[in-house]
Design a protein that fits this description.
Layout (H helix, E strand, L loop, with lengths): L17 E8 L2 H12 L2 E5 L2 E9 L2 E8 L9 E7 L3 H10 L3 E8 L3 E7 L5 E7 L5 H6 L4 E5 L3 H12 L10 E5 L2 E6 L2 E7 L14 E8 L2 H10 L3 E8 L2 E7 L5 E6 L16
Helix pairs in contact: 1-5, 2-4
């Protein structure tokens, strides 16, 4: 049911598409201070509790930040979530394909979610339930995009395709194309993610190991880099793109993210909105 009588939109409308990005942080206030300075984000409380917040850019939701419980030995990281029609079915498919379900599926305020890893160790989430209102408009102006750095992009596409019904022909499913040695994922005509080969599973550097890399298009990459360095962050890598130089940054707790030049009409890939907080 894409939209019900009350105007609420659900994850099965965009099944298999990225629907949210979330940062697991050691300290919520410290993370808000860093990303507020670097990304010009503002924050509001989330419905999940006092240890969660939603980042806003010009009043629009960008991402979520949640503080880790002290007892949890989980790496600080940005994690993408993918919309699914049934979290239990998706979790079973992950396990069947030699992936790992670390947490869940668990019931939250507006749906059910789980945290998992693919068979190469890249961490991702699945979400069944309510999406942010007006997700189509949100997707059109989305402030983030995704790239999977993986061992073999074609093998990864088979894994995720089986889990998330990519290229299945089902209503709302994503389309997969192969372009210049990359796998390109589209939802509703929008590029929503890219999968690239070359990651090394045994690498000591987390930027080289298989992982989902979150890119945030910004108007001034050098200014973001300068602010990150001034607030305890570090530059991990710089790379030229057709729109200009991008930079992969590490926040003070170790979370990796990339700032890339904002190019209206060609952001690179777009996210659908996330689960309602």
């Amino acid at each position: 049911m894409p939209v019900d009588a009350a105007g609420v939109e659900w994850s099965d409308a965009v099944s298999g598409a990225p629907c949210w990005v979330n940062l697991t942080a050691r300290d919520l206030v410290a993370a808000q201070d860093f990303y507020g300075a670097v990304m010009s984000w503002e924050f509001r409380p989330a419905k999940l509790g006092e240890e969660f917040s939603v980042a806003l850019l010009d009043g629009s939701p960008v991402a979520g930040i949640g503080a880790l419980a002290p007892a949890l030995q989980v790496a600080v990281a940005w994690t993408p979530f993918f919309a699914v029609a049934d979290a239990d079915v998706a979790a079973a498919r992950i396990r069947e394909r030699s992936g790992t379900v670390a947490i869940g599926p668990v019931s939250l305020v507006s749906g059910r979610g789980a945290l998992a890893a693919d068979r190469d160790g890249a961490v991702f989430g699945i979400w069944e339930g309510q999406l942010l209102t007006g997700w189509e408009a949100w997707r059109d102006s989305a402030p983030a995009w995704l790239r999977l750095r993986t061992r073999n992009a074609f093998d990864a596409a088979i894994f995720y395709g089986g889990v998330l019904d990519w290229a299945s022909g089902l209503p709302g499913s994503c389309e997969v194309e192969y372009e210049q040695d990359e796998v390109v994922l589209r939802s509703g005509g929008h590029v929503v993610a890219r999968l690239s080969s070359g990651a090394l599973e045994a690498a000591s550097d987390p930027a080289i190991r298989p992982h989902w890399q979150v890119h945030f298009p910004v108007a001034d990459v050098p200014a973001c880099v300068e602010a990150a360095l001034a607030h305890g962050g570090a530059v991990v890598a710089r790379q030229a793109t057709p729109s200009g130089a991008e930079a992969t940054l590490r926040d003070p707790d170790g979370g990796l993210f990339t700032v890339t030049p904002l190019h209206p009409g060609d952001v690179g890939a777009r996210l659908s909105p996330g689960p309602a907080e």
